[in-house]
Structure formats: C-alpha cells, structure tokens
From TrEMBL:
Residues 1-24 form the signal peptide. This is Prostacyclin synthase. Its EC number is 4.2.1.152, 5.3.99.4. Heme binds at C419. GO terms for cellular component: endoplasmic reticulum membrane. It is a single-pass membrane protein. It catalyses: a hydroperoxyeicosatetraenoate = an oxoeicosatetraenoate + H2O; prostaglandin H2 = prostaglandin I2. One of its GO terms (molecular function) is heme binding. It is found in: Endoplasmic reticulum membrane. Catalyzes the biosynthesis and metabolism of eicosanoids. Catalyzes the isomerization of prostaglandin H2 to prostacyclin (= prostaglandin I2), a potent mediator of vasodilation and inhibitor of platelet aggregation. Additionally, displays dehydratase activity, toward hydroperoxyeicosatetraenoates (HPETEs), especially toward (15S)-hydroperoxy-(5Z,8Z,11Z,13E)-eicosatetraenoate (15(S)-HPETE). InterPro entries: Cyt_P450 (IPR001128), Cyt_P450_CYP7A1-type (IPR024204), Cyt_P450_E_grp-IV (IPR002403), Cyt_P450_sf (IPR036396). Belongs to the cytochrome P450 family.
Amino acid sequence: MIWTVLLLVHALLLYFILRHRSRSRNEPPLDKGLIPWLGHALEFGKDASKFLERMKRKHGDIFTVRAAGRYVTVLLDPHSYDQVIHDQDCLDFHSYAKVLMERIFQLRLPNHEPAKEKAVMTQHFLGMNLCGLNSSMSRHMLEVAKAEMPQNQKDWKEDGLFNLSYSLLFKVGYLTLFGGEQNNNCSDLASIYEEYKKFDGLLTKMARGTLKSYEKKTAQSARQRLWELLAPARLAKGSGSTPWLHAYRRLLREEGVDNEMQTRALLLQLWATQGNVGPAAFWMLGYLLTHPEALTAVKTEMEALQLSPLDSSVVTPVFDSALDEALRLTAAPFITREVLQDKVLHMADGQQYLLRKGDRVCLFPFISPQMDPEIHQEPQKYMFNRFLNEDGSVKKDFYKGGRRLKYYSMPWGAGANGCVGKQFAISTMKQYIYVLLTNYDLELCDPCALMPGVNASRYGFGMLQPEGDLLVRYRPRQKL
Ligand code: HEM
C-alpha cells in the first residue's frame, strides 16, 4: 500500500515538474493562481468579468492565466484587437467551438467543413434571402403574439419581461427557421421551449464541465427530450422545412453525418440562433421601461413610421442607438481563438508579446471598449442617445488614449467570424418591440422597479441573462 501511495506521489510530482511553466522573455505576464492545474478556474467561472477586471488592475491590458490546465492569454486593449481578429493563419476560431460542441451538445462531426456551413448561413441570412426570412418572421410574430397575448383581453395581464420576451421570440424563431407549422403543434412548441430553457440554464456549467450529479441528469434528460422533439424537423420534407434548414441538412448528409448526429446538430443550431435574441430584446425593453425619456423617444419614432419598420427605406436612428446602448451594457461574449502556431502580437502601444502554440487567446470587449470609462462616460448608466450626435445622426467617434477607436462596442464580434445573423437578429428585435409598443399598453407593475442584476456565471457566453425578472403588465391598446 505504502509503495502504491509513494509511486502515485512521485508520478504526480513528475507530472507537475514536466508541466511546469514559467514566463519567458517577451511573453505576457503569467498568472497561474495558487491551485496546481486548476489555477484560476473557479474564480474565472464564478464571475469572469470581476476576475478579469482584477487581473487587468494587476497586470495591465494583456496577461496569461491558467484555468483548468489551459493557458489563456487575455487581451483587453481594443486598439490592438485587429491583431487577433484578422489573423486566421495563426489563430483559429473552430478548434474551441469544436470543444464546446462536444461538451454541450455531444456533437461530433469528423468530416465537418466549417467554410461550407458558413457559406450556407451567409446565403440564407444575408442579402436577398433576408427579405424572405424577415417577412416569414413578421408573420409568425403576429401569430405568436396573438396566441400568447390575446387581442380580446380587457384586463391587464402580468408576466416577467424576460420570460415573456424569451419565450415569445423563441417560438417565433423556431417557426421561422425550423418550419414548425407542419411538424409541430402548439403544445410541442411549448414543450420544446420548456426543455430548451432547462438546457440553456445549465449551458455554462456544461461548457465548463462543472455540473453536479443531479444537474447532469437534468441536462441529459432535457437534451434527450430535445433531440426527440427536433427529430420531425430533421425529417421534414418539402414545405415542412425552411430553405435554410433544408440546405443545412443536405450539407450534413453530404458530409456523411448519421441521423443521430444530424438531430444533435439541429440542437446546436437551435441554441446558436435563439440563445441571444430573446435575452437581448429583454434588456432593450427593460431599459426602455425603466427610463421613461428613452421609452417616449423610441415610441414617438415608431408611431410616426408610415411603413413597416423592416422596410429597407425606413430609418430608425433612435431605436438603433437605444438598442446599441442596451447591447453595450449586456453583450458579453468571449472572442476566443486557439493559437495554432507561435505568434508575435504587436500591441498598438508598440509592445510585442509572444503567444505560445497550443494556448488560447481571448478578447473580452465587455470590459473594454464597452464598459471602459475612458471611452464611455458613466459606463454603468443607460443613455439611449449615447450613439447619436446632437443633429440626430449616428455617432461613431469614440476615443481612447487620444486615438479614435475602430471598435467602440462589439456585441456582434468582428472580422471574418463576426455574427452572420446580426441583421436578422436586429430585424427580429425591432419587429418585436414595434408590435409591443404600438399594439399594446405595456408598463412596469411597480413604477419604481429597477433593472434586475445579471447572472454573473454567464459572462463570456454571449448575451447576459438577468438574475430574477422584471414584472410587467400589458393589455391590447384601445383603438381610438
Ligand atoms: C442578439 C443576438 C446575437 C448576438 C449578440 C450574437 C453575437 C455573436 C458574436 C459575438 C459572434 C462572434 C463569435 C466570435 O467571434 O468568437 C457571433 C457569431 C455567429 N453568429 Fe451570432 N449573435 C446573435 C444572433 C445570431 C443569430 C440570430 C444567428 C443566426 C441566425 C447567429 C449566427 C451566428 C453565426 C453563424 C456565427 C459564427 C460565424 C462564423 O462561423 O464565422 N447569431 N454571434
């Protein structure tokens, strides 16, 4: 027994000696944390924003931290972001995406060609096809709103704004992109959303591999149920499928993906297309309702529209600024890339740092530019007209260190891997807010209510979600 223990201790020591890492010349400051292997993983996972702010105060705009055996270099100077965003030779978007695909969705696509998938997305979510998608989305928006927020109701109805926005937009998005009409009835749609919410609630823990055993069971059963519920969408033929889904399924078949993996891929797409829009719409509407002058400005602009807000000739600068401001405060993705080969990173201030092959590099625009007090005055405050000039035109001039910034807010990422669904997502939110503000009376249950705080475990995973909800009440507007 004693020999086994000694052998184990020696093996562990050898492991740590071989894996020992120290900072080399020209490398960013290295902060391994106190716990071997785990490093800063716990603090990172608990509240990444707070942790990275602390590291920034300690080390500056670039540093490398250890988390669960991996070394991640974090870059927080927006003037230097192009060095990461535009280097597709040394830095790779897909390796880390693949890790998450497997951890969260149990999805393995060995012959997957990301460029082909991207081409399918681009073809269906941008350009001419976007118009078709928008009109299908608008139609479903009216249908779902009618069903969930009845026109004939006289009395106020109460709900949490997050719950209302996420569930309604999820259903609209599902019907638009997954073509549920023929495949699913209403109760299936409600079940898909219920299971999806359970799954989404555990998503960050799945990504970090920190599920407790009872949570593992819940995640597994929600995933399994979603696979079953999505199977009809995988099988749908002709008019039961939407053009995007049809093209995506064809690509999977061409890549030799079997039926089971195809269904898992659909769940990934369901989350990728629905995971951010509902929460983003919630934040925007929540900020409007808690800032009456912003609500009046957006309402006035919307009520004056002669055409649909999605008509290409319609401009909505007030809405656009109010949305950009909500996203500045609540979009918090990590832009993560795997370092495929050693790379010298040239910072805008003239410093050079070596990034090691096998490490990851991560931008966190939430800290800077979005919440950087040098760029945005009183960054914690919601100012609906922050992105408007005095003459009402779009404001694009923001500065840091006396230099004009290319990136002053980055909710959609940037460069070659920037968000393909941006236009569609904006149209969906615009239509939702238009329908709500022009067809319904909508107000806070408690006129003094404040916006709820954020669920700090979601920093790094796209749009933030609230801790709790904001109670609102609504009823159809009386036609004058
Ligand atoms: C408010 C809503 C949304 C937000 C805030 C958002 C944000 C983002 C961000 C930050 C990225 C870049 C990730 C990176 O560089 O590492 C991204 C990528 C992407 N987004 Fe979105 N997104 C939203 C909605 C959507 C929708 C509705 C779709 C699809 C219909 C979509 C499809 C994609 C795709 C396909 C990529 C990856 C692009 C690539 O492979 O190069 N997104 N999104």
